[in-house]
Write a structure and sequence with these properties.
Length: about 625
């Protein structure tokens, strides 16, 4: 469940006028290139639909839906659309808003008082319906326990109740956005209560069927099951079908031709084949994210909206959504400027996503005749740019499991140069005092906002805080010492072993004291590398290794205790050792201190004594 787990939009891809590769000149050329690309990505089966000028001009299947039977994929083959479901949930909620049945600013505690949640700021900053859909509740993303629970036969109310112990706001709702699979499901429950109808039934009646989607459904109907593709993990093994317990967030099953109706809906500004589902004004609201502190700073159309995201691509602006579940992957995108869009569905291998090569190919094709219309670069006072410079750390980790990866691997260094900012080596130019775009794209993708609590860097699904100089020095120093100490230990290890064999280490403190820092680093790396088997694949079988207490999860638990303990022992021995030279003692003490510094951070986020079965 790549999209369903990590649940964030990919931040890299190239397209259109600024792309280095030429655009395919015809559908036939695009078809040939897609065939080669799906083979290169080891995708067993895929389906593609292209929409131009409001009409489906191309729909084709590639590869096989069943490897054992060699059943070919056709445009009628059903795939799991995963988190693209959120786009439909946003549309369904907006129909109720438009009909006066519910308000986006309605409070959760009033709309669904049976839903249990914790929000320390509820009196002044309540959780509202809009926060649930725009991912601004402050709740962590769903845990592995929720992710791996099979919900066959469950009601939506039961799924929400089962997940509700995780509904804890970590900051004031409406402050930052972070992808959260529970919010849209709770919004779906609110919709049920507001209209007095089952979510799936309302979705069919008010959204899917009027949109021209005759068979696609949030329930796996017998007709859909008959045409459902199998899916395959990275190892080629078939991935079993799992019923998720939060259907509005990801349970849509659909073929590529019917999903292309969603693209036509957005290009038609709420109307498909003469059927108006939403007004153009309601569609425009879906495409804005208005509930973060970056929204008033001109970032609303670049925030995640109501189940709808702006792609951070090069060149022309596309919007849409991606998804991943049970080794199925999916993406749809559309450009109102080009009056065109696309859908790609895949059943395994390298998959498809925002930024995947197949998506890039299609977007270059769709914008082949579109002139670039970049947002104008404006002059901003250099002092204002200088105020944004510094080291930024994520304040919106998805959950405890992902927090260290997002905060450490996601560190950003921002420097201010004349008339621009440079973020991790990439230049961004101001389109206003707060919003910035790179030279190779039309629209801004970053915003910088300061308030009484700090200075923040915003993208669609992340907010990062500028660290004070002293904390930045500790972070950089700790990481540098960890790397330096590890390299020194590995380089000197052969020398120490030779000295040990020659009997020259005993009077110099021995081998163990020299190995202790490396052992501490090794335990630290083991702690954080083992979950990568799951984080890399997003597959349920890999997730079960972490969610069920057993050898794999217990090893992580043991190593997460071992690395601070070994570092303490190394520090003690490094100070007390006799006979070792100053360089060796410095290596031992400084590496141990670096591990202990990292241990303090790990302990603060629940990663010392890490119990992945509770994350």
């Amino acid at each position: 469940m790549r999209g369903f787990v990590v649940a964030i939009v990919s931040l890299v891809f190239a397209v259109c006028a600024f792309a280095d590769d030429p655009a395919p000149k015809s559908i036939e050329e695009l078809d040939r290139l897609l065939t080669k690309q799906f083979q290169a990505d080891a995708i067993p089966g895929a389906a593609v639909a292209i929409v131009e000028n409001g009409q489906i001009v191309f729909a084709k299947g590639y590869g096989v839906a069943d490897k054992a039977k060699q059943t070919p994929v056709t445009p009628d083959t059903v795939f799991r659309a995963a988190s693209i479901s959120k786009s439909f949930t946003g549309i369904a909620v907006m129909t109720a808003v438009q009909d006066g049945k519910v308000a986006l600013d309605g409070r959760l505690k009033n709309l669904a008082p049976e839903v249990k949640f914790v929000n320390p700021w509820e009196e002044t900053d309540p959780v509202r319906l809009v926060n649930l859909i725009e991912h601004t509740t402050g709740w962590p993303d769903i845990s592995l326990r929720v992710l791996t629970t099979d919900g066959k036969g469950w009601s939506l109310a039961r799924g929400v109740a089962d997940t509700s112990p995780e509904f804890v706001s970590r900051w004031k709702p409406g402050r930052f956005a972070v992808y959260n699979n529970a919010g849209p499901a709770v919004a779906g429950l609110i919709l049920e209560k507001a209209i007095g109808q089952d979510f799936n039934a309302y979705m069919r009646e008010r959204v899917l069927r009027p949109m021209g989607i005759a068979t696609g459904d949030f329930d796996l109907t017998p007709e859909l099951a008959q045409h459902l593709s199998k899916s395959y993990g990275a190892d080629g093994a078939e991935t079993p079908f799992q019923y998720i317990i939060l259907p509005p967030a990801g349970s849509l099953d659909i073929n590529v031709k019917e999903l292309a109706q969603l693209v036509r809906f957005f290009l038609g500004r709420g109307t498909v084949d003469g059927n108006q589902i939403l007004t153009p004004e309601s569609v425009a609201r879906i495409e804005r994210g208005e509930s973060t502190i970056a929204s008033p700073a001109g970032f609303a159309t670049h925030n995640y909206g109501l189940g709808n995201a702006q792609f951070p691509d090069k060149g022309a602006t596309f919007r849409g959504h991606n998804g991943g579940i049970d080794s199925f992957t999916s993406v749809y995108g559309y450009s109102t400027a080009a009056n065109a869009g696309y859908v790609i569905l895949a059943n395994g291998g390298g998959g498809v996503d925002i930024g995947s090569p197949a998506a890039q190919l299609i977007q270059r094709f769709l914008t082949r005749n579109l002139a670039s219309q970049p947002a104008p670069i404006v002059a901003v006072d250099q002092a204002a740019l200088d105020a944004y410079a510094g080291l930024y750390r994520s304040v919106t980790p998805s959950n405890t499991l992902l927090q260290p990866y997002q905060q450490i691997l996601g560190l950003k260094w921002v420097s201010a140069e004349k008339g621009k900012l440079v973020v991790n080596g990439k230049e961004f130019f101001p389109t206003s005092e707060h919003t910035f775009r790179s030279a190779d794209r039309d629209a801004p993708t970053l915003a910088f906002v300061s308030d009484g609590e700090g200075t923040y860097r915003f993208s669609a699904f992340d907010a990062e805080v500028k660290e004070p100089a002293w904390r930045a020095a500790i972070i950089v120093g700790t990481l540098a010492l960890l790397l330096l100490g590890t390299l020194i230990g590995l380089v000197l290890l052969p020398i120490w072993l030779v000295a040990l064999l020659r009997g020259r280490l005993s009077e110099r403190g021995g081998l163990l004291v020299r190995l202790l820092p490396l052992c501490a680093v090794g335990a630290l790396l083991t702690t954080f590398m083992l979950p990568f088997a799951y984080l890399g694949s997003g597959a349920i079988p890999d997730a079960l290794l972490l969610v069920k207490p057993g050898p794999y999860a217990y090893t992580i638990f043991a190593m997460s205790i071992a690395f601070p303990v070994l570092a303490l022992i190394a520090l003690w021995r490094g100070i007390a050792v006799q006979g070792a030279n100053l360089f060796t003692r410095g290596y031992i003490v400084l590496t141990a201190l670096a591990v202990l510094s990292f241990s303090a951070y790990a302990a603060s986020i629940g990663w010392v004594g890490a119990q992945t079965w509770h994350m």
